[in-house]
Amino acid sequence: MPLWRYPATYLLMGINLAVFAMMFPFGPVMGLIHQHAWGSILTAPFDVDTMIRFGASASPLIQAGQWWRLVTGAFVHVTILHIALNMWCLWNLGLFGEPLLGKRGLIAVYLLTGTTGMMFSYAWSIASGQVALVAGASGAVFGIAGILIVLLSNRKLQVPWEELKSLRRQVIFFAVANLVIGMTPNMLGMASPGQLKLVHLDLNMLPRIDNTAHVGGFLSGLALGLPLFPRMNSGRASYRARQTVTFVFATLLLCLFGYALSNFAHGRS
User: Fold this and answer.
1) Which DSSP state fits 27?
2) Contacts 24+ apart (CB under 8 A), 176-179
3) Residue pair 156/232 in contact by the 8 Å Cβ criterion
4) CB proximity list for 81: less than 8 A, separation 6 or greater
5) What is the pTM of this model?
C-alpha cells in the first residue's frame, strides 16, 4: 500500500503532535534557544503543572476521580526526543498493523492498550505507595507490537511465510530492545556513585522510563490478538464482528479493573 493509505496511523500521530504543539509554548525550549543551550533542547522536559494541565496520568488525581487521565495520558509527551521516538515507532508499527486491523481496529487497540498501560502504572503506584506521573504513547505502541506478534503468526495470511516470520522477528526485537532500554536506568541506579563517575554518567540526566506501562500495554496487546487470530481468514464481516466483541469485552474488563483499583486505593487511604 502507498504510504498515504494509512489514515488511522496518521490520525493518531496527528493527535499526539497537536497536543505537543499546544504544550510547546509552555515548555522550556524557547528559553534554551535564547540561551544557546542547544545540547539540552531534545531532552528538556515540560514541568509537572504543564503535563497535568494537558492530561498526563497523575496517580493522586486519578484516585480523586479523574479517570479520563488514563486515556489522555497516552497522547501527552515529556520532551521532544520522547515524542520523536514514540511517533517513529507508532508510524512503523502502524504500517504493519493498519492493514491487519483496519482503521477502527488500530485506533481501538491504541486506546485500549494505552489505557491498560496507564492503569498498570497506576496499580503499581498504589501497591508501592509512590506517586506516579506517567505520559506517552509507548504503552499503546507496545500494545500494537503485542497484537502484531500474535497476528503475524498466522500462516494463512496471503503473504509468504518467510516474510511474515521476518516481520514478526522485527516486532519482537523492537519490543525486547525497548524493554531492555526501559530497564537500563533502574539497573544503573544500583551502581555506586564512583562506578557511574568512571563511565561519566549522571543518573539525573537519564530519562525516567515507566516499564510498568510498557509491560501492561504489551500484555494487553497479546491478549487482544488471541481471539482475533482464528477469524483473520473467515471473511471481512466475521473478522470485524469478532473485533467488535473483543474490544467491547476488553473495555468492560478495563472498567471493572478500574473499579476494583478505585475501591482498593480508597480502602488504603
Assistant:
1) S
2) 178/89, 178/138, 178/142, 178/214, 179/211, 179/214, 179/215, 179/218
3) yes
4) 42, 43, 207
5) 0.88
